[in-house]
Amino acid sequence: MSRASRAMLGATVAAVLAACAHAPDPAPSPLPVPSLRPDYYGTLEPFASDAVYFVMTDRFVNGDPANDQRGQGGGDPALRTFDRPVPGDANGANIGYLGGDFRGLLDNADYIADMGFGAVWLTPIVDNPDEAFTGGDPIGSEAFFKDRGKTGYHGYWGVDFFRLDEHLPSAGLDFAGLTAGLRQHGLKTVLDIVGNHGSPSFTMPVDQPKFGEIYDDGRLVADHQNLAPADLDPAGNPLHRFFHSEPDLAQLSNNDDSNPDVLDYYCRAYSKWIGEGAAAFRIDTIRHMPPAFWQRFSDCIRDTHPGFFMFGEAFDHDADKIAPFTWPGGGEVSVLDFPLKERIDAVFGRQRQGYETIAERLYLTDGPYANPYELMTFYDNHDMPRMDASDEGFIDAHNFLFTARGIPVIYQGSEIGFMRGAAEHAGNRNYLGQARIDAAPGNPIHDALRRIARVREATPALQRGLQLDVAMQGERAVFYRVLQEGRFAQLALVMLNKGDAPVDVEVSRWLQPGAWRAALSGRTQDVGAGGVLRDTVPAHGVEVWVLDAPVRRDDLREALDQAMAHRLGGPAN
């Protein structure tokens, strides 16, 4: 979101935050109405209130077997699309469709919302080819971008970006029906979009229907014709003008970002899905098109949908390489926080490094990003091995993600440690299913996630507040999240312990006097001037102490003034 858009949102967000307060100010404020000053916040982005649950739709729940298309591809085993096990894989990996659909997602909306999520990110919904791909390289458990025999179950091989893939809707339940149903459960819909590529487009022994083709609501506008990129004739053949004549990812078409027709096509296509209820976009392979293209795209979308939230996937652990997409001129979108993900994995996975490993990747002041508080924080997804951690490691990771800066994203099944450590073709994308979802309550990872996610859901300071670190070393992290905007004011003091034994924590730095309450245990502590807040945090535990009051302590205000002045990054600062 641009800085101008954030400014316009300020008044609206102030009203929303005021409605979220859970307790009256314990002491009368000496500051005059209508507002408190100064303002302290990490972001005013409304979407920051919504933790995100990521669903690979085909691998979530088969709610309607009638749309499985089990006969698709005909009688040729090389072309069929349903149920294609990866040869020799012991974890049951599959590269065919397995039946997950909109009905299965909507049937489990209560399950997702009950955990404390406010949004669902689902994989692309657009039409994909109707056969398995016969070109490319043979797939294997360790294969990456080796697509022979694979199908479009994941949704990223778009053919007609204006039409739904037939595996997803049911009678009476199209995309608009899905988004409306999710909204009834308090869930926004984040739609995964692709601009860089369509389907696999060359190396097929015989040209296959839809592969390498792009349609505009049923009208053919581009066709690779099973030709290698170097053999395309964009100047002479109208069907080649959509594509670059250089390869990019595997055998996928490489859309020409310099062609205004490409921008127009995707702007119109994705505007259609906003009209049917998409509330935000996740942009696939954002770094495979230049930042200038994404600036034109985001401007196009926001011309008719001001402030529309988007975040991109730039798969790189170097913050300087992914941050440009957050700047003016680069798209002004958020990104998935891959640099932090690398450190989260090291701290909560089998390495069990200390919290200091994370601290330097938070970039709370003068960092490379336009605003670090709007980054999407995560530890794994469908494109990489799932995090390899113990139950306690997952619990610790969730305790951190749902209290620290950023917007947390959790991949389906992680709430039960599903297929932990498994790579893409070795179980990462395995079918989750209704039975596992029904059995999730009572799982220690699920139950601990639900507790801390619901605390974040109820605590605006954890969603948008500035972060001030008190200690982040070894097995312990202690930090404040402070939100004071308009007439709303809240301080949250977070205590994290990822060790195997309880730890005593004492905090006096920046500690403001008042009646603090523990969000998880419900206990209270009255802290006087110059006092100390003491607590014992259990092994692999968390507590969030909350004070609903304006900022009054001078040294706290000074620290917040500094954090506020330097929270934004990027070349413009």
From TrEMBL:
**Cofactors named for this entry:** Ca(2+)
Q: What biological processes does GO assign it?
A: carbohydrate metabolic process
The Glycosyl hydrolase family 13 catalytic domain covers which part of the protein?
Answer: 54-436
What Pfam families does the record tag this protein with?
A: Alpha-amylase (PF00128)
Keywords noted in UniProt? Carbohydrate metabolism, Glycosidase, Hydrolase, Metal-binding, Signal, Transferase
Is the keyword Cytoplasm in the record?
no
Catalysed reactions, as listed in the record = Endohydrolysis of (1->4)-alpha-D-glucosidic linkages in polysaccharides containing three or more (1->4)-alpha-linked D-glucose units
Q: Which domain of life is it from?
A: Bacteria
Q: Where is the signal peptide?
A: 1-23
E.C. numbers: 3.2.1.1
Any single GO molecular-function term of the entry would be:
transferase activity
The Swiss-Prot or TrEMBL record describes its family as follows:
Belongs to the glycosyl hydrolase 13 family.
Q: What is this protein called?
A: Alpha-amylase
> Could you tell me which species this protein originates from?
Marilutibacter spongiae
